[in-house]
Amino acid sequence: MVSERLRALLAQVGLDPDDFGDPAEAWRRLHERLGRRITLVDRYELEGRELDAEERARLGAEVLAIQCPGAEFAGATRADPVEVEPYDPAWATVFERWRERLAGALGKTAVRIEHVGSTAVPGLVAKPVIDIQVSVPDVDDDQAYVPAIESVGVSFRFREQGHRYFRPATGPRTVHVHVCRAGGEWEREHLRFRDLLRADPVLREAYGALKLELARRYRDDRLAYTDAKTAFILDALDRPAQ
């Protein structure tokens, strides 16, 4: 039995909530209509049973191929557990150190370097990983920035349209570096969501509660933890600008 939310969405796309057929095809129908609001955890739910780690990995690859066509991983993925902690004021200082290193390595290639993600929001619970957004003129020109970013101690790990991702290859996962096009959608969404959370304590509290619940539920499934936040983020971004 699927949740009331998913039952309503299935009916919305013309599928019988009690007999929607192949879960993969039902998820594709939902995604075609609703886009990013249909997530990996919805795909899990459509299976109607408990899934082991191997099955979740298979479904994760299936969903990612649809959500991010052409996406590529460079090197092995890491299944680090999700750990959410109270806000630490030291995170801002850690970001500044990384910002200086990246600015020195990239020079004028970096149009802007911003602290994004939950560690950039005072008072918000977060995984203790500093998310850094580097905006460049042309995200497709990898040679303009990949060697420079790797020179400061992180490795290129993921490519998708409009976004490149770096993290430490070994040791603790302390920082993520995201590269995007200056003025592009990736940059705008991440900066706006960060600023909304900073400005609105009610939104911040609700997001923190969601993160804690998802960290409990998907501690060993980082992709599901991340994707399950999407609807909340899109709802916040859809708010009229103040």
Describe this structure in words.
- The protein has 242 residues and is of the alpha+beta class.
- The protein has two domains: 4-67, no CATH class; 90-237, Beta Polymerase, domain 2 (2-Layer Sandwich).
- Helix content is 46%, strand content 13%.
- The chain is built from ten helices and six strands.
- It has a six-stranded mixed β-sheet, with helices on both faces.
- Helix 2 (23-34) runs antiparallel to helix 3 and helix 7 packs across helix 8.
- The termini are far apart.
List keywords for this structure.
about 240 residues; alpha+beta; Beta Polymerase, domain 2; 2 domains; 10 helices
Radius of gyration (Å) = 19 Å
CATH class of the largest domain: Alpha Beta
**Which second-level CATH architecture of the largest domain applies?**
2-Layer Sandwich
Low-confidence stretches: none
Percent in strands: 5-15%
Tally of individual domains? 2
Instruction: Name the assembly state.
Output: single chain
Helix content: 40-55%
Could you give a short account of the major beta sheet? 6 strands, mixed
SS elements, strand count: 6
How do the helices and strands line up, and which of them pair or pack?
Elements: H1 4-12, H2 23-34, H3 40-47, H4 53-67, E1 72-73, H5 90-106, E2 112-116, E3 130-136, H6 146-150, E4 155-160, E5 163-167, E6 175-181, H7 185-199, H8 201-217, H9 222-227, H10 230-237
Helix pairs in contact: 2-3, 7-8
